[in-house]
Predict the 3D structure of the following.
Amino acid sequence: MPVFHNFIDGEWVPAASGATYENRNPALHQQVLGLFPRSGPEDVDRAVDAAARALKSWSLVPAPRRAEIVFRAAEMLVRRKEEFARQMTQEMGKILTETRGDAQEAIDMSYYMAGEGRRQFGQTVPSELRNKFAMSMRMPVGVCGLITPWNFPMAIPSWKIMPALVCGNTAVIKPATDTPHSALNLVKVLEDAGVPRGVVNLVTGAGTAVGLPLIRHKEVKLVSFTGSTEVGHEVARECAPSFKHHHLEMGGKNVIIVMDDARLDLAVDGAVWGGFGTSGQRCTAASRVVVHKTVYPEFLEKFSCRAKALRVGNGLVPSTEMGPMISDNQLRTVEEYVRIGRDEGARLVCGGRRLSDGEYAKGFFHEPTIFADVDPRMRIAQEEIFGPVVSVIPCDDLESAIEIGNGVVYGLSSAIYTQNINAAFQAMRDMNTGIFYVNASTIGAEVHLPFGGTKQTGNGHREAGQAALDTFSEWKSIYIDYSGKLQRAQIDTEAM
Ligand code: UN1
């Protein structure tokens, strides 16, 4: 049985208590993939102390040099992509093509952020006064506490670690309990690429035992959290008393709008990919499809045919199109929402059952599920399910589609399928989401544009793209007066 360790101050060490927990395969639950440290507050303290000690010297390494290490990490990820993807499918369940995509996203983010090492532009502006220079530059924030989810086990850790590093911060990462291995692989690559000791630390274990003490630690100056809106509230509350920076990326209830002039087969492709990719366990998943009434019957027919035909199974088997749920808990949540949908009177057109025959009994599988004729006020159309359950909602026109689309508490991603450029532009303007797609599904954001959402999806910060630099750095404005005399801004300005 492989035994894995925390990474603290450049050493691989067990939890101080020696306790471990099992990392199991959600497709074959009897299979234990490895033992990981069941860490506690004492491990968090050691990791944060190491990160705090490393901060000064790391922040003084020129940003292009820091970025070279990130670049080397990217190259190592390229070489080990297949190995990491297979391990990811085993610990998380999603199919191999998707875990390759997840590792690729980490590669892309690493290359992108490596480039940002040479591009952390500030501003130089004319001063209001003579013989005075004005400019701004970025500063690191300090020790970052990074708390990452299980659905993108390597990509999302990379979204946080890479910008944190190029901006000169040090970090302690606490990966999701269900997917420690992929985060550990990323940290190992950073170690091999030459990140100095203490700069990146990894502590595995539960949210209450590791995440909470990490958020509360006074030396942690920035928390970046991806997960549920419920836990996001808690993170925000914990950070408020000390005004600790906190970046939150939370739930979604994303929508695809299908207009009467849409290329219907393309829209069906998008709904299948967005609804059932990653078994619906994405914050960007297309869990609602709002369809113009004139094409509604045809869309529904085609969509349910495709969903019924999806091959569900172990993600390592090449023919599999949809893997298991991450855990029994997640599977129960999905079953509960199916019950809620039925009770609310939505029409179940396909799926709706846990899969438990034969090989399926060994894991946490659920059928791709579609509810039709859904009222947008129903709970299945309002709440994030994080599973393979899609609500199809009829609409009369673009205005009502947009109103339905916006009628949820979340604001992450939305999409429209139409051939009408005016409709596309109107929806682009009016959908209150952080990400918007035209003739493409709600998933598949790229690393060099801001990622995040409005309303209860986020708290105004973004990750990825240049926006990540704003999340992981502080601004300093600098004025250099070389006039050799007292110049009073605002007061002397007029006399100029
Ligand atoms: C998530 O579901 O938490 O845009 C992130 C996408 C992926 C990232 C999803 N690139 O669907």
Summary: The longest strand covers residues 28-37. The chain has a mean pLDDT of 97.
